């Protein structure tokens, strides 16, 4: 066997095309095309340059052709954002960026028609102002002519699939990010749409993850000189793809998809929707086989990235390795932050904000770069512990391991701290979880891999996973008491 498939993985700042080669035992990755994803601001609005992104997909297909071709294509992106198309298939307007100001105040607006408890009770999704439901409410209230011109709403990966195939579908995992899916029956919620006056006719049927969307259309094949390869509806929400690739042999496991954000949770067969999950703001997102990723969105490596950017502005060109080394050499447990405090959410002087937070909360003030970095690392690890306890309380299950996947799996210092703080074995890797999950679902769709469980075994055997065992847990227990008081008070 020598199967080759093509994965497109889009993030909020860049995208890439990766070939996955499967020989029956191991999945090998080859990145063949990388490109920037640059939002465009026009007249006070922020748009995604979707036509440019589709051009980059074509370039990726051409490069894959030069590498021996491919049997199928899968696309994953971030959640919540969408495009509206007319009855003739043309775009009504470029998709709007989730950070656009149109979303401000829309959660409060929605509460005039449906309570938060009711909305969460149906969807199981945490409340974020940029969720699709609130973006649509903004359009209905402020730009109704846009909705009137639209025939269908397609989430971004579904929109790109439509450009490739001409087929209008909605894949399950990306659909759940809209906060419009009844998570208990896996279909659109007519009840929510009716209460918010969202036209049900906008939405296409939800298809099961792993289904074939269709084949490359004739125009694409002729333009690029490629055969009619299948386009597969992988877990097109990038979190869903990352969870698919968690190399867990055990059924019950904790994962952290670690990058700019840390998505920490567990995989369940059914959603958990109740007072505790609502209070802890834990979300239920869809995955392969109608599984549920029961997870919490935590501020992640953003804190480190933004700190490094600030130092660069000041003429201090520290590498990430430099920052980690300085943190490791600094005094432990001097002060903490709540990583999800509002003051750390936006770009700016992160070191200055950490110092001000320490002053405001009556803690010793970090005096140098190393102490600031130590504060970030320890606070992230302690927030993982807090989130783990929330998940344990909601699920009633026990977990032996935490799997850290994504780019943050490369950060051994943070992985060790996570093991220490949570008193759990940490398994770090793969760093390329999202792409591997995308490719794995394509291989399951073709019958070359039998199941997600088999895919995880293949990934576990083929990746250089690193194991971190907990140590110094008593000191971390004491630090957690101080951190938790700080978190509760602030």
Would you give an account of this structure?
With 490 residues, this protein is of the alpha+beta class. It has a seven-stranded mixed beta sheet with strand order 18-19-17-16-20-21-22, sandwiched between helices. The chain has a six-stranded mixed beta sheet with strand order 3-2-1-6-15-14, with helices on both faces. The longest helix is centred in the last third of the chain and has 27 residues, at 369-395. The protein is globular and about 65 Å long. The chain starts with a strand and ends with a helix. The model has no long low-confidence stretch (mean pLDDT 96).
Rg result? 22 Å
User: Counting H and I runs of at least 4 residues, what is the number of helices?
Assistant: 19
Percent range for helical residues? 40-55%
Structural class: alpha+beta
**Biggest sheet, strands in spatial order?**
18-19-17-16-20-21-22
What number is the mean pLDDT? 96
* Number of strand elements: 22
* Global geometry: globular
Low-confidence stretches: none
The N- to C-terminal Cα distance equals 57 Å
β-strand amount = 15-25%
* Major sheet details: 7 strands, mixed
């Amino acid at each position: 066997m020598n199967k080759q498939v093509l994965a497109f993985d889009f993030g909020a700042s860049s995208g890439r095309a990766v070939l996955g080669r499967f020989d029956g035992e191991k999945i090998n990755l080859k990145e063949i095309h990388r490109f920037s994803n640059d939002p465009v601001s026009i007249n006070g609005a922020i748009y995604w340059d979707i036509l440019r992104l589709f051009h980059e997909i074509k370039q990726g297909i051409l490069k894959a052709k030069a590498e021996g071709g491919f049997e199928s294509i899968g696309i994953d992106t971030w959640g919540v954002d969408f495009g509206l198309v007319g009855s003739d298939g043309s775009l009504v307007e470029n998709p709007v960026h989730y950070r656009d100001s149109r979303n401000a105040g829309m959660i409060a607006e929605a509460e005039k028609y449906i309570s938060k408890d009711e909305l969460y009770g149906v969807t199981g999704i945490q409340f974020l102002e940029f969720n699709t439901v609130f973006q649509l409410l903004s359009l209905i209230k402020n730009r109704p002519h846009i909705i009137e011109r639209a025939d269908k709403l397609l989430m971004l990966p579904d929109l790109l699939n439509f450009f490739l195939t001409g087929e209008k579908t909605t894949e399950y995992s990306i659909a759940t990010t809209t906060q419009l899916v009844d998570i208990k029956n896996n279909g659109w919620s007519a009840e929510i749409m009716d209460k918010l006056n969202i036209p049900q006719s906008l939405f296409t049927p939800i298809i099961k993850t792993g289904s074939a969307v269709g084949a490359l259309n004739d125009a694409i094949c002729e333009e690029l000189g490629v055969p009619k390869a299948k386009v597969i509806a992988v877990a097109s929400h990038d979190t869903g793809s990352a969870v698919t690739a968690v190399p867990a042999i055990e059924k019950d496991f904790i994962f952290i998809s670690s990058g700019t954000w840390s998505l920490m949770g567990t995989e369940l067969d059914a959603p958990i929707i109740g007072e505790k999950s609502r209070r802890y703001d834990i979300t239920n997102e869809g995955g392969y086989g109608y599984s549920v990723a029961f997870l919490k969105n935590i501020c992640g490596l953003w804190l480190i990235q933004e700190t490094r950017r600030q130092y660069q502005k000041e003429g201090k060109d520290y590498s990430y390795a430099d920052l980690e080394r300085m943190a490791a050499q600094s005094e432990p447990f001097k002060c903490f932050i709540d990583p999800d405090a509002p003051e750390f959410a936006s770009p700016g002087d992160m070191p200055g904000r950490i110092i001000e937070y320490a002053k405001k909360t009556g803690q010793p003030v970090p005096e140098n770069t190393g102490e600031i970095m130590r504060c970030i690392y320890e606070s992230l690890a302690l927030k993982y512990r807090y989130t783990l306890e929330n998940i344990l309380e909601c699920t009633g299950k026990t977990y032996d391991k935490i799997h850290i996947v994504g780019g943050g799996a490369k950060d051994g210092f943070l992985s060790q701290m996570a093991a220490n703080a949570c008193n759990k074995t940490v398994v770090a890797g793969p760093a390329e979880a999202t792409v591997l999950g995308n490719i794995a679902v394509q291989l399951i769709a073709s019958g070359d891999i039998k199941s997600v469980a088999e895919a995880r075994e293949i990934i576990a055997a083929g990746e250089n996973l690193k194991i971190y065992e907990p140590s110094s847990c008593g000191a971390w227990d004491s630090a957690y008491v101080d951190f938790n008081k700080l978190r509760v008070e602030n």
